[in-house]
Amino acid sequence: MSGRALVIGGGLAGISAAVRLADAGWQPTLLETRKKLGGRATSFPDQRSGQSLDNCQHVLMGCCTALLSLYERLGVADRIEWHEDLFWWREDGGIDLLAPGRLPAPFHTAASFLRMKMMNRHQKKEVRRAMLAMLRGGHRLRAKYAGKTFGQFLEATGQTDETIRLFWDTIIISACNLPSSSTAAVHGMQVFQEAFLPGRWAGTMGLSTVPLAELYDPAEQILIDSGGQLQLGCSVREICMEGRKAVGVMTADSMERADVVVSTVPPDRLAKLIPSTTRETDRRLQHLESFEFSPILGVHVHWPEPVMDLPHLVLAGQPVHWIFNKGVDASNRQHLHMVISAADDWMGLDEDSILERVRSVTDKALPKTARLTPCSVRAVKEKRATFSATATIEPCRPSAGPSPIGIEGGDLESLYVAGDWCDTGWPATMEGAVRSGYLAASAITGDASGIEEVPAGRLAHLLGVDR
């Protein structure tokens, strides 16, 4: 089966759904309100610095197999730079290194972890206790903690507040955009069971070497070659229904008809495209207004001279979570990008106040900056950066395709749903977004091949991390 598909939303979920449909012989039209692709993972021209800046630094890991497969299909996988070593800044001004060594997974980072000075030996024992519980518990432990928070798991394994602040929340806030006390246990465990414990490649960090928007440029030609198209600057006003079947969309200019409609927009936006009386009959759409969101703040600062040699810094237990070194230009200016996740307390601040607050941390981590005045500053607020992956929202995350079982004979026909907020098994990440797009395309085409996962190392598997 093939036909015409309308895909609403040009973020990673929409791009992946449209590309996968094109490869399956469909003619997808990708509709995006803005003049560029990428959604929240994109870039923009900045007049202050004269550069193209990412909305926020987006990180992938080796375990992000769906995202990597999309990059391969787009022909941009070579634009990802990989980092095995993680540099952690300590409050005493020193730097700790977390890096894989000679031991096999899951103990590949054990030697460097034991050498880290940011925690004492008692705190390291706490971390080891929780890590072993996740290693041996595998997916069974996730099921046991369904409906609970990762903070409850940490409490059950005897983690003190200081250990949570320095280690667990430093990782969880960056990965899930929520603190451990709010993050669903299933996702907190997933971060460690799928990235840190199974193997050295799974936890290797990838960063784009080009502005994020450039990664998506090849998508348009893929759509054109399939008989589809990309429409930028196209705002969808309504998903058109005939009876209980989606037959197209109404844009600002006209009605577009199609055999299937794929919505990849956030839940609050989708709620505005379908009348509430219609939504109430589709089990996937009944909880759209239950989703809450968590913000991220990215702060780009250009310094008049180089101030940082390392590629990045993890700021353990600090209000600023990461510093990324974006390079030195021909004028010897260095571009640093600071990231603050779960940034609720920052959203009401103006740019001067944001810079002052950022510098209260970064001037300690990078002493050279204390005597310098930035050449340019750009703070980028993403107030609704991710859905809040709490324990209570998990049952509300919808599957991609319609079910024949439900109110009034089943869900709405020919309507498919994607987005990182859908039921992907992942929190709000680029990987989750791409997986949702692939799942929607598979529901349409009937392709049951699934998504290839990074296999756990032999020892990690024997100990139970992936079971």
Structural notes for this entry:
The chain is an alpha/beta fold. It is built from 13 helices and 20 strands. The protein has a 7-stranded mixed beta sheet. The longest helix is centred in the N-terminal third of the chain and has 24 residues, at 121-144.
Please give the CATH class of the largest domain: Alpha Beta
Could you give me the name of the CATH homologous superfamily of the largest domain? FAD/NAD(P)-binding domain
Q: Which of globular, elongated, flat, extended, rod-shaped describes the shape?
A: globular
Main sheet: which strands, in order across? 8-7-16-17-18-15-19
Q: What amount of the residues lies in strands?
A: 15-25%
Instruction: Compute the number of strand runs.
Output: 20
Helical coverage, percent range? 25-40%
Number of helices: 13
Point out poorly predicted stretches. Answer: none
| CATH-defined topology of the largest domain | FAD/NAD(P)-binding domain
Tally of individual domains: 3
> What is the end-to-end distance?
36 Å
Q: Could you say which structural class the secondary elements and strand pairing correspond to?
A: alpha/beta
Radius of gyration: 22 Å
Q: In this structure, how is the largest beta sheet organized?
A: 7 strands, mixed
Layout of SSEs?
Layout (H helix, E strand, L loop, with lengths): L3 E5 L3 H12 L3 E6 L10 E4 L4 E4 L5 E2 L3 H10 L5 E4 L2 E4 L5 E4 L11 H6 L5 H24 L5 H7 L4 H16 L8 H12 L8 E4 L10 H7 L3 E4 L3 E7 L2 E7 L3 E3 L2 E4 L3 H5 L4 H4 L13 E11 L8 E4 L6 E7 L5 E8 L9 H15 L10 E12 L27 E3 L12 H16 L12 H6 L4
Parallel strand pairs: 1-2, 1-14, 2-10, 7-16, 14-20
Antiparallel strand pairs: 3-4, 5-9, 6-9, 7-8, 11-12, 12-13, 15-18, 15-19, 16-17, 17-18
